[in-house]
Amino acid sequence: MSTLSEQDLQVHLPRAGAFGLDQDEEFFEIEEDGERRRIRCHDYGEIYSVPGLYERIFADVLSCQSPEVVVDLLDETLVREGHDPKQLRVLDLGAGNGMVAEELDDRGADSIVGVDLLEEAKEAAERDRPGLYDGYHAIDLTELDRDTREELEEHDFNCLVCVAALGFGDIPADAFRAAYDLVGPGGWVAFNIRDQFLENGDASGFSRLLNKLFESGELKDHTRSRYQHRVSVNGDPLHYIAVVAQKAG
Predict the structure, then answer these.
(1) Residue 220 contacts by C-beta under 8 Å, 6 or more apart in sequence?
(2) Average of pLDDT values for 78-90?
(3) DSSP for 113-125?
(4) Could you tell me the pTM of the whole model?
């Protein structure tokens, strides 16, 4: 496994000729021991395999602020509505290496369970932030076996958080719905998503799913905020919508 340091690894963004890429086509290069290799920004398994690389590229180079923004919005909404953030039992969907869980833990969440499709994400979380999660599963929520489903249900989740993981095929709409169904009545749902996936004509399924939940009253919209999620590899702002909502009691 590689080890990230200022001395032996450098991050290079594409030159101007490569600009104009769609968000899920973006890439960067790392230079380690004099050799370069290209990594697509959505090749999370490869990124997680290098300790510290995720934080370097997304937090430092691309200025991603979504973990803090979404968790802050959740915390503010709970306080405004008279709920205690320290009573949250959170399902962290698309948990990655634990950056969102770290924000939740800083605000005193009662318990946090991570779920990610990638085994590399689980390994990175256990490596980079040991002891942070009360459980972590590298699984597909749409194909749960009975034992795993029962184990997840035992946590009695009252909150679902999903940050920087929706809309580009990493977590499809049916997987988000499966996670949503693990949260009890009256529970909270906090997520972010690029604004294009909430528009008419969206092919990902998220616009249809979320409209159905909100229009039926199954999910109550409490807070929305449009903000700069991060910048693209050529420095253009990428805007997302952060949402905090509550399931019907």
Answers:
(1) 214, 245, 246, 247, 248
(2) 97
(3) EEEES-HHHHHHH
(4) 0.91
